[in-house]
Design a protein that fits this description.
This protein is α/β, with parallel strands linked by helices. The protein has nine helices and 14 strands. The chain has three domains: about 140 residues, FAD/NAD(P)-binding domain, CATH 3.50.50; about 100 residues, FAD/NAD(P)-binding domain, CATH 3.50.50; about 35 residues, no CATH class.
Amino acid sequence: MNSVKNSATSKPEPRGALHLLIIGAGPYGLSLAAYAAHHHLEHVVVGRPMEFWKQNMPPGMFLRSPLEWHIDPLGVHTFARYVEVHGFDTSSLVPLPIQMALDYFSWFQAQKGIVVAETYVQRLDHEGGTYRATLDDHSVIRARNVVVATGIKYFSHTPPELAGLLPAGRFTHTSGLVEFSRLAGRRCLIIGGRQSAFEWAALLKEDRASEVHVAYRHETPAFSESDWAWVPELADNTVRQPGWFRSLPGAEQEALHHRFWTEGRLKLEPWLAGRIARPGITLWPGSKAVQCDLLPGWEFRGHHT
């Protein structure tokens, strides 16, 4: 059977409830659709395939994921299989370019026969023991189960105290800056000191920004490869015993939080080091913005501590 019952151009009509509605067509949504199809569950996927990845990640970006990474829960249409089928040289895929990842996602979707209803859910109600999803065109999908896999698009955050310092319309979150050429010849300030801040600094400089300054409150993270070898065991625990984490003592929960933080947030990818250590990029560890003045000619004068 097809992975979904509606094509990208069809409009689902009210009818008997599906087993599963998947809201979102990013990596998690596509992966879940493949797994639902494998178990012959009637389902619909709603969203625009890989939209956030296509619109909010710059062409020159690299993924932090190793070549062993993939989104097939069945372990068949893996990234390694994609590379093998197309005869790519793996030495050119470390680090992994964003466009290669997007191509893999498209290949995965085609191999699995996943059809996506390319629209948005505007409202989700629970009534009579089922869910009622109202779409952009006012059509309705009813489902007994719903998985929301909308990704990280709505989690971008600019602290209010920082936004209050900056002139409206003169700053953006990294997820909103994917075209760097308009900043060629400009002096740029990045406030924040994790992976995206450093990678955006490299990309800005490589796209001819005259200067890039990176200010952050903590010490400079280490350019060191993260070790995630211990995570699969935690995932297996979740399969065997859902909710196991909540039953842990608080100290053990905090220890796991800290371990994830250490690997994911206190380290930067080694391949960034050389791109950051270049003229025109200045790091300001242990600092924060305290004042920002708009000067004549729409130039900034920033102050940090």
